[in-house]
Amino acid sequence: IYSQPMQTLLLFHSHCLCFLHQYHFVNINLTWTDAQAYCRENYTDLATIDNMEEMKRLTESVGSDYTGEAWIGLKKGTSWRWQWSSGEGGTGYINWDISQPNNLYNNQHCTEVTWPGTWDMTPCDEKHPFICYDDNLILVNSNMTWNEALNYCRTYHSDLVSVHNEEIQYWVSRMAEKASTDHVWLGLRFSCYLNFWFWVSAENVCYQNWAPNNISNSNLCGTTGALQSKDPQYWVSLPETKELNFICSKYPSDVRNR
């Protein structure tokens, strides 16, 4: 049922990454508003960029052959503050061109990315290609055992979610708040044979958020990892036969440095 033999887990240390945004370049000339509508109909929204790593992946999604402009989801809101189309937080990460933002003609309220990847303010009614993103996480509000949840995720998406750092923990926790069960399954399982926890994506457990005094390495055979749906949203070990909601990842994690 697992994608790789358990012995594989002893042979590498992975650089743990889980990409929350999958980017898609659309080479159709649309206004910012029409591009937003297209992305929301076919993906999740116009591109949101939270950090330098995501900016790098966004430029890679476009490819080296394209040297024009492309809309991203950053726009001046009603309070005249820059905000993302998706409604995510503020703009903690910015990558404006050295001359931006300037709003020279007081009509440049939308943002396009130019190459090699800096941002420019632009009138929203101009027509350009654009970049959409797709969420990597999906909550399934059906109650299933851990094995049933794993099979469902691998059949319809990619895998049960792996949580490799605090940022992923944050987004998985926000998703879990919408669950109809007190816990949601994660892609975390205890190996009786090897006597440790592992992610079913064959990645090391390099970040942990266990509830205090929840686990030891005894009497854990047949247990799997779940996340509390409400605060403080720790991980807990539960029998694999319990039926819960669960969170799938749509795209495979990128495991490097094996």
How would you characterize this protein structure?
- With 258 residues, this protein is an alpha+beta fold.
- It folds into 2 domains: 127 residues, Mannose-Binding Protein A, Chain A (Roll); 114 residues, Mannose-Binding Protein A, Chain A (Roll), CATH 3.10.100.
- Helix content is 17%, strand content 31%.
- Strands 8, 9, 10, 11, 12, 13 and 14 form a 7-stranded mixed sheet that branches. The protein has a 4-stranded antiparallel sheet with strand order 4-3-5-6, with helices on one face.
- A hairpin with a 3-residue loop joins strand 5 and strand 6.
- InterPro entries: C-type_lectin-like, C-type_lectin-like/link_sf, CTDL_fold.
Topology of this structure?
Blueprint: E1 21-30, H1 32-42, E2 45-46, H2 52-62, E3 70-76, E4 82-84, E5 110-114, E6 118-122, E7 128-135, E8 137-144, H3 146-156, E9 159-160, H4 166-176, E10 183-191, E11 196-199, E12 223-228, E13 235-239, E14 244-249
Parallel strand pairs: 10-14
Antiparallel strand pairs: 1-7, 2-7, 3-4, 3-5, 5-6, 8-14, 9-14, 10-11, 10-12, 12-13
